[in-house]
């Protein structure tokens, strides 16, 4: 938020947070709220499904676009979020999108990329293993892994839950 201070002087920062986003640990949301950002979709009681439905009704072509969480959500807590790291994640995900995988996340663990896709797409990733490895390595990762639990939002929060147990 500090980077926005000069641009936001006298303005209100508006975030697209919806009711479904409130049940997950999202430190950026807390910081934004603490700095005066507003969440109109939450105020209206909108869930992700409501946003999609109203987008469809309004004829927006993005109504069924897969969720696109902030790239920093691919970086474990305690790891520095830098332009270099975000660029690697973005390039790896773009390479996988180019292979036809629509919903996915590439989680950044230093030299290791952990790929998450919906469970029903796991076999397709394995079938296209060489192309997948090539796409992710070309983004700068030395190791490429596939998360057998599949794509799930907020899964980096599991580390917080485990460490508090």
Describe the structure concisely for a colleague.
This protein has 8 helices and 3 strands; from the N terminus they run αααααββααβα. It has 165 residues and is mostly helical.
Secondary-structure blueprint:
Elements: H1 5-8, H2 27-34, H3 40-43, H4 48-57, H5 83-98, E1 105-109, E2 112-116, H6 122-127, H7 129-137, E3 143-146, H8 158-164
Parallel strand pairs: 2-3
Antiparallel strand pairs: 1-2
Helix pairs in contact: 5-7
Rg over alpha carbons = 18 Å
Q: Helix fraction?
A: 25-40%
Largest pleated sheet: 3 strands, mixed
How are the strands of the largest sheet arranged? 1-2-3
**Individual helix count:** 8
pLDDT < 50 runs, ≥5 residues: none
Structure description:
- The structure is a single chain.
- This protein has 165 residues and is mainly alpha-helical.
- 39% of the residues lie in helices and 8% in strands.
- The protein has helices spanning 5-8, 27-34, 40-43, 48-57, 83-98, 122-127, 129-137, 158-164, and strands spanning 105-109, 112-116, 143-146.
- The chain has a three-stranded mixed sheet, with helices on one face.
- Strand 1 (105-109) and strand 2 form a beta hairpin.
- The two termini are 31 Å apart.
């Amino acid at each position: 938020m500090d980077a926005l201070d000069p641009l936001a002087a006298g303005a209100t920062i508006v975030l697209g947070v919806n009711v479904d986003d409130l049940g997950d640990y999202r430190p950026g949301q807390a910081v934004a709220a603490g700095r005066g950002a507003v969440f109109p979709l939450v105020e209206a009681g909108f869930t992700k499904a409501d946003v999609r439905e109203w987008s469809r009704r309004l004829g927006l072509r993005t109504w069924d676009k897969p969720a696109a969480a902030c790239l920093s959500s691919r970086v474990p807590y305690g790891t520095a979020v830098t332009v270099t790291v975000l660029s690697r994640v973005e390039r790896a995900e773009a390479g996988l999108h180019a292979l036809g995988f629509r919903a996915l996340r590439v989680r950044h663990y230093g030299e290791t990329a952990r790929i998450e896709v919906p469970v029903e797409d796991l076999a397709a990733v394995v079938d296209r293993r060489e192309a997948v490895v090539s796409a992710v390595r070309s983004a700068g990762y030395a190791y490429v892994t596939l998360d057998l639990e599949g794509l799930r939002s907020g899964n980096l929060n599991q580390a917080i839950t485990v460490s508090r147990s």
